[in-house]
Amino acid sequence: xxxxxxxxxxxxxxxxxxxxxxxxxxxxxxxxxxxxxxxxxxxxxxxxxxxxxxxxxxxxxxxxxxxxxxxxxxxxxxxxxxxxxxxxxxxxxxxxxxxxxxxxxxxxxxxxxxxxxxxxxxxxxxxxxxxxxxxxxxxxxxxxxxxxxxxxxxxxxxxxxxxxxxxxxxxxxxxxxxxxxxxxxxxxxxxxxxxxxxxxxxxxxxxxxxxxxxxxxxxxxxxxxxxxxxxxxxxxxxxxxxxxxxxxxxxxxxxxxxxxxxxxxxxxxxxxxxxxxxxxxxxxxxxxxxxxxxxxxxxxxxx
Length: 303
Description:
Strand content: 25-35%
Oligomer: single chain
Strand order of the largest sheet: 3-2-1-10-9-5-6-7-8
Distance between the termini: 31 Å
Structural class: alpha+beta
Radius of gyration: 20 Å
Order of helices and strands: EEEHEHEEEEEEHEEHHHH
Number of strands: 12
Number of helices: 7
Mean pLDDT: 84
Low-confidence stretches: 266-270, 273-284, 298-303
Largest sheet: 9 strands, mixed
């Protein structure tokens, strides 16, 4: 295993709420009241829809408000990682990632573990540059039992709700979180800060029409079938735990420009449209464009 490289769950696509629209020559974030499921391939008009998107859209009258999912792991913290994250807007690299107690930070001496006072008490976080950043991995369909779709968000409502649900479901199921039949559900709310407009966030619930007793019975049966087939869930959790711990930061250099543009642009969205293309890109070159241009320039200088 390459040291310093976080080994994360294989990604088949992305789940988002929100999109980027063209207005007056600028690409601006727009809140949506629906999910979008995309592949990892971009076209001229943005991310290309995954086949699951069309199927769910047809079954829900044109707008995806819920997505049937299951989880990869029994440990809530492996399914959903939420931390305070600060990215360098010039280089696109993660500069500091912390949990409110300790952080991993790039310094002149390399990556160091330091106290994390949270964004409110950290001098590096001035100007709102440090935000909560969550990544949820879920399985959609039965084609690839270890391949997942990722939902990213900087929204407090999504982060708080998903964290609570995962811990509650793990507790009531007797640590059978990966066997529960679940679904992602889009919810909306208005707050004083939103000035009465709707904020959309993501919740994790039991499948529609299923009682808790039915879901728990299905989870017990699924666990028994997995054990009979030789599937070792505890070993899978441990392998994922070691993989995440193998690197100081979860995101690769390839992913960082996309994440910075989505969530950390100076005129970006509110985060609850997050896990979405909720960035604002002005007519000036984007961070991704700068990095791509730099990469091309460097490759051209090589013999």
